[in-house]
Design a protein that fits this description.
single chain; TIM Barrel; 10 strands; globular
């Protein structure tokens, strides 16, 4: 039996949990019958080092993520706001504007793409993935299939997309993606129910494990929606519960913490609350949450903006970087990077450079905020406008 076990260990294609256990100094070694080592418990050895390297690259100083993974329907709403029809040609033109902004990689380390964009070329015929790599930006991919009603809950949602995820992830890796994104949500006005929190955490954990098995760094995103009149203390209370569940199930699914990135909501009052919070208050609550719930092994905390204005999202991020953190505390913004850029472009070819300048200004502002050096200089009234949308979907 011992000989057969040794042969199995030598030929196993995965990092064996038994080897990890042997390497530890255990004060109280349980009986052998309690130690049940399963080679399938951990990430494939061929990807473990690459996952850690990718995560560290995305979580590099002064840089963050450009979330440009809006579904075709949501991208259509953005285009409609500037009077453009929702066609593939118009989506291609806008996405080309974003990825070809000169020097974008100085401030942006990763770009989350929608499936169409991952396989798309720019208007000049260059593959978008290649353009990103030339900018020193890691391509990522949205892999969830959107929110649907959660039966048995208090009018809450769950995120679908686990069916076929392994094969899709393998194909995305082949196409050049190196990290993935899965967004699920928790609603405070609707509870949140224990069922909804557990479903969100379990779905994220299964997605994370599947992503790592196929070479993609999973961005773990349980968004706590801004919807509601609740105060910041209620948000903090719910966030503690959600993140406790998330990391419990990540551990249950043997996810490699060094090879993930998080995309949490900042701890703020509800968007409809009469009590507003200063950047310093948001920073204090959010960092207290992170220290209580997030292991230091996680390399990057890439905050979502969740409908905050461009300036508000940058100010809050800057406040969180006024002192050292165990993690890279940065951004993964969509509207909070693109809003002024989109309106400046307006669908007109002659406005492309001005729109790219607006994107670069916003990206640089958040880069400075990641370093704790943002001053607010040069901001416009447009950048200070809130972008909260009740019940927002992608």
């Amino acid at each position: 039996m011992a000989s057969a076990s040794a042969t199995l260990l030598k030929s196993s294609p995965v990092i064996d949990k038994c080897e990890w256990v042997k390497a530890q100094t255990l004060r109280h070694t349980p009986p052998l019958s309690v130690l049940r080592c399963n080679p399938a418990f951990t990430v494939r050895a061929s990807y473990a080092d690459e996952l850690v390297k990718t995560a560290k690259t995305v979580a590099s100083p002064g840089r963050g993520i450009l979330a440009m993974d809006e579904s075709n329907a949501t991208c259509g709403k953005r285009l409609a706001s500037i009077g453009l029809e929702n066609t593939e040609a118009n989506r291609q033109a806008y996405r080309t504007l974003l990825v070809t902004a000169p020097g974008l990689g100085q401030y942006i380390s990763g770009a989350i793409l929608f499936e169409e964009t991952l396989y798309q070329s720019t208007v000049d015929g260059d593959k978008i993935v290649d353009v990103l790599l030339q900018q020193n930006i890691v391509p990522g991919i949205k892999v969830d299939k959107g929110l649907v009603p959660l039966a048995g809950s208090n009018d809450e949602s769950w995120c679908q997309g686990l069916d076929g995820l392994a094969s899709r992830s393998a194909a995305y890796y082949t196409q050049g993606a190196r990290f993935a994104k899965w967004r699920t949500v928790v609603s405070i006005p609707n509870g949140p129910s224990a069922l909804a929190v557990k479903e969100a955490a379990w779905g994220l954990a299964r997605y994370a494990a599947i992503s790592q098995e196929n070479g993609l760094v999973p961005i773990v995103e349980p968004e706590i929606l801004l919807d509601g009149e609740h105060g910041i203390d209620r948000t903090f209370e719910v966030a503690q519960k959600v993140w406790a569940e998330v990391f419990f199930y990540l551990a249950e699914n043997n996810v490699l913490f060094e090879g993930i990135l998080l995309k949490p909501s900042m701890v703020t009052p509800g968007a409809e609350s009469k009590a507003r919070a200063t950047p310093e208050q948001v920073s204090d609550y959010t960092l207290k949450l992170l220290h209580r719930r997030i292991p230091p092994a996680v390399p990057g905390i890439m905050f979502l903006s969740g409908g905050q204005s461009e300036v508000e999202a940058t100010l809050n991020l800057n406040a969180m970087n006024q002192s050292p953190n165990p993690w890279h505390v940065s951004f993964s913004y969509a509207r909070a990077l693109q809003n002024t850029c989109l309106k400046t472009w307006g669908g007109r070819p002659e406005n492309v450079k001005a729109a790219q300048d607006a994107l670069l200004f916003r990206a640089k502002s958040n880069s400075l905020a990641q370093l704790g050096k943002y001053t607010g200089e040069g901001e416009t009234d447009e950048a200070a406008k809130g972008m909260f949308v009740k019940g927002y979907v992608y």
